[in-house]
Amino acid sequence: MTTARSRASLLWAAESFVRQFAQEDPGARDPDERVREIAASVAAFGTYTHTSEELTYGARIAWRNSARCIGRLYWQSLIVRDLRDLTHPDDIAYECFEHLRMATNGGKIRPVISIFAPDRPNRPAARLLNEQLVRYADDPRSARHTALLQEMGWKGGHGRFEVLPLMVQVAPHRPPECYELPEDAVWEVPLVHPHHPGFAALALRWHAVPAVSDMTLEIGGIHYPAAPFNGWYMGTEIGSRNLADADRYDLLPVVAQLFGLDARDERTLWRDRALVELNLAVLHSFERVGVTIADHHTESRRFLSHIQREERHGRKVPADWSWIVPPLSSGSTAVFHRYYDPPDPLATPAFRHRPMP
Amino acid sequence: MTTARSRASLLWAAESFVRQFAQEDPGARDPDERVREIAASVAAFGTYTHTSEELTYGARIAWRNSARCIGRLYWQSLIVRDLRDLTHPDDIAYECFEHLRMATNGGKIRPVISIFAPDRPNRPAARLLNEQLVRYADDPRSARHTALLQEMGWKGGHGRFEVLPLMVQVAPHRPPECYELPEDAVWEVPLVHPHHPGFAALALRWHAVPAVSDMTLEIGGIHYPAAPFNGWYMGTEIGSRNLADADRYDLLPVVAQLFGLDARDERTLWRDRALVELNLAVLHSFERVGVTIADHHTESRRFLSHIQREERHGRKVPADWSWIVPPLSSGSTAVFHRYYDPPDPLATPAFRHRPMP
Ligand code: HEM
Ligand code: HEM
């Protein structure tokens, strides 16, 4: 059952989306007519269906609206895969793997989003339980997921950098269906250091494509809970956070030892130096095998170009300073030395976090 | 002339300060009695005078309230110099130099504040035009001050790291009186690098005491425009900002060259590496000559202790994330991985910026 109130708020959200689309894109349909059509659908079924143009536009604007994302310069180039007719978990898993192949693109990473069926009144859609399409079982960040999988009988998760199976949950309170990722869908980069041959012996690696899979895409009042999206990596995500954070792989002490740094005294700046070595290894290793990656200085400048370009179109660029500013040498990146329009939590279309089930 | 309205708001501010003091300090005077006394003074003169206990408490709380300051763990140890009877610029300058000597303390830096006469109704007090008691003429940040001094006939400002004279302005629209800082009041640290002997040839140096001199201290509705205060340096202020920022000394390219880094390609992380070398030189050089300085990892942990301690006293610690989190290796400092209570722009006592004259 949908209430009169939820229908009214859905209509309101739909109308404001349709009008925004028409305003930004002269090729869009007559908004009055489209609003009438949506109203009829909502009256009859409690919901409505986006045209594929609306879906594409909506997903791109959701990216443009992501206040935490430094990579928004290329929002218009997002490849939108319309997979709304898929609801069977086998199909969803299959297309997630296809997503990874398409995004990987032989190393020349492309931003892609795959949009599966939306929630319908009293019929929530399938969702992916994984935080990202590719996550490692021994990453402390995956502890709950790894434990869940093992409870369900997964035999893996004892080695290093083992990729978690994909968990597709077709309905709330149902156990997820699990799928091992095919090898050819997951490109990985072995980490080596340009000047220290011993680095390779640490046997570190990371995957090529960061694809967030647990956020809900909201467009015009419609919720797409299964809508994994990816960009390319900015090196610091791997070198300064995933591999370095004390509650992630916590590798600074290991790297410090390899480079002979004195880790007993903070004032040797051993942490800072180990970070530089680790980040250098990440950038160098991706580049060496031909996988797109951005350094934080370049990506910072691109973000400022993005702001300039958006402002020429009369649009603000809300941004979350503490997420935008890179975690390495922040004071020396182009994005540090200014404030931004504050994030607008009501802006839509949007990607939204949901509580972990 | 003071208006009824400005008197009412002064009284309101005074009363809330007096009550806060009484609540926090059982040794404080009976607040009801003190409020009546202040009311009588405001009725007669349009203002009132803090007791020296109120002044000390007020200055310390202003520090504790500074949402941008990572160094607040030691707020109770602030040395408060009561110099409210001084109004002649010669005396003010003399006591600013004494401040520096007392703060320097043979290298064992002590946090000190010197509080000169407050603004009175229709009689604004003297103020210092300098941003800090010690600033260099060739620091691009001082460009306006250097130009102003030269217009007024100052012959200096052509060398490197020349200390700007102190500018004491006794009344608005009056030209400031200028005073050269005595050599023994300004300790400076020549910068050397622990492993690279060539670093010393860059002939860099920095002064020992950061003493902010252009903020107004506000306590219970009374404004003290001349109230310079200092802590000790956190290394990144010098190594990652003052010497590194492109609009300050912009030394990363110079350091990169010294260390043979390839500055044509961002992906060599030459900026990040040069930053580490510069910061290491700063910490090492201060330590070598026995001048207190904090590294950003240690100061970050102290700030978290501060929060814990304040919470045990039932107090929040408003903090400005983008100022608190250090500009070097931010992701690997203890303060990065959380949010803080938002700054409260109405909190008093407080240090406030004022528009540059
Ligand atoms: C094209 C290259 C891209 C780069 C370099 C990039 C970079 C980043 C970075 C560094 C973060 C912060 C991550 C963190 O600290 O955990 C971020 C967050 C985010 N990005 Fe991007 N991004 C890219 C593409 C995309 C795309 C294609 C989308 C969506 C279509 C997107 C949406 C987001 C969102 C929603 C967040 C916030 C995630 C959260 O709240 O956990 N980004 N991005
Ligand atoms: C004891 C050692 C201290 C340390 C290590 C310290 C550290 C810092 C740092 C790193 C900043 C940011 C500076 C910037 O990025 O420009 C800051 C800001 C600030 N600190 Fe402290 N501080 C100390 C003592 C004090 C004292 C004694 C006071 C006042 C009594 C104070 C009041 C402030 C204020 C008001 C700001 C903000 C300045 C502005 O808005 O420009 N600090 N502090």
TrEMBL record, chains A, B:
<dbReference type="GO" id="GO:0006809">
    <property type="term" value="P:nitric oxide biosynthetic process"/>
</dbReference>
<dbReference type="GO" id="GO:0046872">
    <property type="term" value="F:metal ion binding"/>
</dbReference>
<dbReference type="InterPro" id="IPR017142">
    <property type="entry name" value="Nitric_oxide_synthase_Oase-su"/>
</dbReference>
<dbReference type="InterPro" id="IPR044943">
    <property type="entry name" value="NOS_dom_1"/>
</dbReference>
<keyword id="KW-0560">Oxidoreductase</keyword>
<feature type="binding site" description="axial binding residue">
    <location>
        <position position="69"/>
    </location>
    <ligand>
        <name>heme</name>
    </ligand>
</feature>
<keyword id="KW-0408">Iron</keyword>
<dbReference type="InterPro" id="IPR044940">
    <property type="entry name" value="NOS_dom_2"/>
</dbReference>
<keyword id="KW-0349">Heme</keyword>
<dbReference type="InterPro" id="IPR044944">
    <property type="entry name" value="NOS_dom_3"/>
</dbReference>
<dbReference type="InterPro" id="IPR036119">
    <property type="entry name" value="NOS_N_sf"/>
</dbReference>
<protein>
    <recommendedName>
        <fullName>Nitric oxide synthase oxygenase</fullName>
        <ecNumber>1.14.14.47</ecNumber>
    </recommendedName>
</protein>
<dbReference type="InterPro" id="IPR004030">
    <property type="entry name" value="NOS_N"/>
</dbReference>
<comment type="similarity">
    <text>Belongs to the NOS family. Bacterial NOS oxygenase subfamily.</text>
</comment>
<dbReference type="GO" id="GO:0020037">
    <property type="term" value="F:heme binding"/>
</dbReference>
<comment type="subunit">
    <text>Homodimer.</text>
</comment>
<dbReference type="Pfam" id="PF02898">
    <property type="entry name" value="NO_synthase"/>
</dbReference>
<keyword id="KW-0479">Metal-binding</keyword>
<comment type="function">
    <text>Catalyzes the production of nitric oxide.</text>
</comment>
<feature type="domain" description="Nitric oxide synthase (NOS)">
    <location>
        <begin position="68"/>
        <end position="75"/>
    </location>
</feature>
<dbReference type="GO" id="GO:0004517">
    <property type="term" value="F:nitric-oxide synthase activity"/>
</dbReference>
<dbReference type="InterPro" id="IPR050607">
    <property type="entry name" value="NOS"/>
</dbReference>
